[in-house]
Structures are given as C-alpha cells and as structure tokens.
Amino acid sequence: MVASAPLALVRADRNARLRNLLVLTVLVGWLVYTRFFWGLKAVHATFPPCPFLLLTGHPCPLCGGTRSFAYLWQGDVADAMRLYPLGPVLFGGTLFGIGGLAAALLSDRTFRWRPSPLWERRIQLGAGAVLGTSWLLKLTVLPN
C-alpha cells in the first residue's frame, strides 16, 4: 500500500493564497515590531503587557517572547534564551516560514500538510511537552 506524502506542494486556490498572504503579513509585522521594540518601549508605544501576567502575577507560556526576539535582533542569544527558552527556535522558524510563504505566493503554490492521526497526536504531545517545559522554567528558574 502506498501512502500519500504528509507534506506536499500543491497549486494554491484563492483561500490558500489569502491565508498565506495573511500569515506572511502577520509574521513580517511581528518581526518589524520586535526589530524596533526597544525604541518603541522607550516612547511607550508597545503593546500592553500580558493579561495573564497582570491577572495572576505569573508569566504565561509565551511571556518573554517579544523581548527574546528583540534581543535576537541585537545578536544577544544568551539574554534571548534567558527570557524565553524557545525564542531562538521560534525566531528561526519565523524566518523560515516567511521564506516558505513568500515562495509559495510567488509560485502560486501552497503547502498541504496531512499527517496521519497518530503522527498528529504525537506532534501535539511533543509540542505541548516542549511548551510546558519552557513554561515550567519560566515559573521556577527564569526571570519574568
């Protein structure tokens, strides 16, 4: 029995093009925001603080991500990881994603991902474990 590939490059329909354009716009916007974060912070022009942190006094699983990206723009990997352990990986993934989405839009193709239910569950559990470990580090060892 031959199984279809879980990841394929296929011709994009209208909805896929719009989705890809929206995701590309959000990712580029996020990188621009984090690139100029320290200057924006100096003039009090940043997004408001994390609501979870304000309500509970504890960081959420994503707290520190913005500052982590901002430090990565300065080449400070140590501070980026101290604030958000997943920051450097997510930064690299964001750059990779922007390249892939731009190529997809220019070639009128899109990525179709259809893992088996077993692999989908494994990926969800793995991502949850990584995010949970990062959050546990934020709650116990790393600064807010």
Report on the architecture of this protein.
This protein is mainly alpha-helical and 144 residues long. The chain has seven helices and two strands; from the N terminus they run βααααααβα. It has helices at 14-35, 37-42, 51-56, 65-73, 77-83, 87-107, 117-140, and strands at 7-11, 109-113. It has a two-stranded antiparallel sheet with strand order 1-2. Helix 1 packs across helix 6 (87-107) and helix 4 packs antiparallel against helix 5 (77-83). It is globular. The mean pLDDT is 92.
Compact overview of the structure:
This protein has 144 residues and is mainly α.
Sum up the structure in keywords.
single chain, 144 residues, mainly alpha, two-stranded antiparallel ribbon
In round numbers, the mean pLDDT is 92
Strand order of the largest sheet: 1-2
Q: What pattern of helices and strands is seen along the backbone?
A: EHHHHHHEH
- Uncertain ranges: none
- Straight-line N-to-C gap: 51 Å
Number of helices: 7
Sum up the overall morphology in one term: globular
List the helices and strands and how they pair.
Elements: E1 7-11, H1 14-35, H2 37-42, H3 51-56, H4 65-73, H5 77-83, H6 87-107, E2 109-113, H7 117-140
Antiparallel strand pairs: 1-2
Helix pairs in contact: 1-6, 4-5
